[in-house]
Amino acid sequence: MESISELIEAIRNYVINNHVIVIIKINKEKVSTRFYEVINNEQVSFRPKPKEYREFSDEIYERYNSLFSTEDKFNSAIIEINPDGVYSEKYFWDSEQEKQDLLSGAEVFFQWANEKMMSLIFEFEQDNNLLPTQLDADGELEYLSSWDSGVFTFHVNEKNELEYKIILTKDGIERVLKMPLKDYFIEGILNHYQITHTILSDEWKPWNTLIIKSPHNSIPYDKVDEFVSYVE
What we know:
Elements: H1 3-14, E1 19-26, E2 31-39, E3 42-46, H2 51-67, E4 76-81, E5 87-92, H3 95-107, H4 109-127, E6 133-135, E7 141-143, E8 149-156, E9 162-170, E10 173-176, H5 183-197, E11 209-214, H6 224-227, E12 228-231
Antiparallel strand pairs: 1-2, 1-4, 2-3, 4-5, 6-7, 8-9, 8-11, 9-10, 11-12
């Protein structure tokens, strides 16, 4: 990578006479990098913030994405830099890290699903003239909310197909919204189902129905059990 020589030069200007180890962990969300200076055979953490690091981080993330579906895929890297500037690179796939990344994502999947549903509902109701409106102080058309809370039920049937039901409540009155889901959203639910039943099967109880009680807002992380249920 073109940016690595600039990064190494910046690190050598920061750490002059010692061996340096750079440990990199990557997933779809971010690049996490830890810097260690070896002092008396002990690894001492440090954190330089040169612009060269940002450039390197962007480039390694691009490389990660470009190789993700190939046999050269990687999610971890180790760079070792000697005091004379000679360095070595190792890129590899860490299965345990992959599992932890998938688990971290699965544990907050409900938030993604809830937020996407709120957006999809608004777009659908706006396109189909189902939203109440009023004029704001400037005389501009303003769209009002058509629901106060909702219950989204997603069921994966025996054919591995998604069945779903959307119930919205406004002023205590319930209604069923007949709304088609976007393909990417259906794929997201089915992918979540597949991952939690394979790679994460020892961490996740079997389920075929996900129920989200939406407060028409983000779900509080300290009250997840009140709003999210996985049932079989």
